[in-house]
């Protein structure tokens, strides 16, 4: 929204009266296009972030399984030593 505001302000600063009278429709259209583009890039970046996090989680999965196995074996060893 900040980018949209700055673009509109710059265009109005260039020619305030003729721009307001003649091109109000194009200003609104440009503003909506910029908002849609901003929304699109937000969606793309969030999708990329989710995808990257999933890849990282899959990459670390063997490490986590190994750690879980170690904890389970240690727990079973301690339990068996308590029962003996």
Number of domains: 1
Average pLDDT, to the nearest integer?
71
In helices, the fraction of residues equals over 70%
User: From the alpha-carbon coordinates, what is the Rg to the nearest angstrom?
Assistant: 29 Å
Helix-strand blueprint:
Layout: H1 2-14, H2 16-22, H3 24-59, H4 61-83
Helix pairs in contact: 1-2, 1-3
Please explain how this structure is put together.
The structure is a single chain. This protein is mainly alpha-helical. It has one domain (2-83). It has helices at 2-14, 16-22, 24-59, 61-83. The longest helix has 36 residues, at 24-59. The radius of gyration is 29 Å and the shape is rod-shaped.
Please name the defining characteristics of this protein.
4 helices; 84 residues; 0% strand; single chain
């Amino acid at each position: 929204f900040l980018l949209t505001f700055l673009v509109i302000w710059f265009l109005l600063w260039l020619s305030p009266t003729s721009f307001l009278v003649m091109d109000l429709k194009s200003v609104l259209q440009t503003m909506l296009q910029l908002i849609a583009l901003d929304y699109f890039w937000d969606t793309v970046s969030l999708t990329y972030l989710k995808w990257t996090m999933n890849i990282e989680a899959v990459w670390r999965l063997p490490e986590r399984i190994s750690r879980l196995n170690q904890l389970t074996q240690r727990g079973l060893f301690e339990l068996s030593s308590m029962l003996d």
